[in-house]
């Protein structure tokens, strides 16, 4: 949390207390309360997203003393389950920030972005389709990220490797050399935290994916071949043991500690490397994602969205005021700086590329980014991928992919 944001929060609390003290009872009774439910991207109390959102809520109170924003955050890994349970129980928040679920738009529960944001064109256009349903945008890009191939130059030198691999065969050969020196050759996190991201990056490297032309292709020959290659990689001992139980966060930490030669990484790895204090900037590098026949010219782009629930329809104006306030560049940039992610708006992305040059390459990759399906059934499919894709590392990967494909088709 930046000092300026903390100061705004403190000032907001004082101003709010003063404002309420001078309002007549009838005016106070007419106050609007907004319930915000957001994912927590922090690693502990010191950088909890609760602090970020409370700072914005308090500053917003100072400018709008008749609107109260109650902030609730939950660990990013638990957001999907929690919000789905809330909606099933008809406990609708007014605003969410985290994953976007097209099925809620399908069910008529959400406001369109144009109804609750004065400048709905500023959020990054590349993610518009991902946050849309039947051509209308409901999810508003809030924070984004892209992926790159990270490699440990020190371990490469120790193993006699000159450059980052460009093909799968080169990656396997390099991983074997690094493993022979007593390190993890390639870090393959297929645990439940974000298995869908790692799997998709590998599928893309073989011309596969989750969907093609709007049709589910999870069990395509390309994807099956990809899992067969990964099985060979794991069986040879060139990855960590049991990738199906390894989460991304733990793997990023091991890379930062100098234990892993290669992995598909994200901008959040940068502060982890700095905090570990093992690798200097000259000890690691990035490259395009490795593909079967050569490096990819695209990457995975991920976006978490804000969404506004209609509820009883009485809070639209208050929601719009709060979202307009929240989407100011200064708050977008503060969030990106706090968690080493990328902004969700075009204006903030341009600004942060200048302010933090190390993020410029990741911002530049976003326009070519491949995204997760915007299909309403994606919520179910993603959960199943997280739960069982790791078991596709084995003698019969097709049966696992068939199971996921059946879930996708049944829900469509």
Descriptive account of the structure:
- The chain is of the alpha/beta class and 412 residues long.
- The chain is built from 18 helices and 14 strands.
- The strands form 3 sheets. Strands 1, 2, 3, 6, 7, 10, 11, 12, 13 and 14 form a 10-stranded mixed beta sheet that branches. A two-stranded antiparallel sheet has the order 4-5.
- 46% of the residues are buried.
Features:
14 strands; 45% helix; ten-stranded mixed sheet; 412 residues; single chain; globular; 2 domains; disordered N terminus; 18 helices; D-Maltodextrin-Binding Protein, domain 2; alpha/beta
Summarize the structure.
The protein has 412 residues and is of the alpha/beta class. Helix content is 45%, strand content 17%.
Radius of gyration: 22 Å
CATH topology of the largest domain: D-Maltodextrin-Binding Protein, domain 2
Tally of helical segments: 18
CATH H-level superfamily of the largest domain: Periplasmic binding protein-like II
**Average pLDDT value?**
90
Distance between the termini: 41 Å
Shape: globular
Q: What does the largest sheet look like?
A: 10 strands, mixed
Name the structural class: alpha/beta
The total of beta strands comes to 14
Low-confidence stretches: 1-29
Total individual domains: 2
Which bin fits the share of residues in helices? 40-55%
Strand content bin? 15-25%
In the CATH hierarchy, what is the class of the largest domain? Answer: Alpha Beta
- In CATH, the architecture of the largest domain is 3-Layer(aba) Sandwich
